[in-house]
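Support request, please re-run this one:
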Amino acid sequence: MRPRLGGAVSKLWTDPEDDPRAFGQPVGEKATYREYLGNYRLTIEMKCDGLDAEQLGRRSVPPSTLSLLGLVRHLAQMEHQWFQRVLQGRTDTPCLYQHEEDPDWDFGGAVADPAVVKDAFATWKAEIAKADEWLDALDEADLGREVPVDGGSHATRDVLLHVIEEYARHAGHADLLRECIDGRTGV
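Re-run finished. Output below.
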């Protein structure tokens, strides 16, 4: 549902014909997770669309290191952590965007440099592609499979819901960050 002003779709929102997100009636648990996850990924991408390195790297409010570029790096790190290391058990793969001197390097290292921007988006897209490949092969019956997490275990579905929740929270951050950059609200 899009807000309407005077019978027209608000200019604050993407025209429904141009919106790449799916708003269907997914059938099944896995399809529902995929649709929500895909929509949140696209929302983050749309929030970053059309911005240059300086704008993407712009920090919210001092002393915070929060920026759209930092969010992209963080989400790449998060995708890698949950899909590669936890759900697939690939704990031998190095963590992304970590630095010994800065535990918040995903955000701290998100500087307004075109090379950093290019790397962040390429890494995020690569992690999404690997996650989607794994999800494509996942049997819906495996959603209840337990995976080790922090000394305990959680069902695969719980991990997927956590990833969706992480995107939802950060999409809210992205809304505010984008509005501070150029006044754009909505997507």
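Confidence is low (pLDDT under 50) at residues 1-9. DSSP finds six helices and four strands in the chain.
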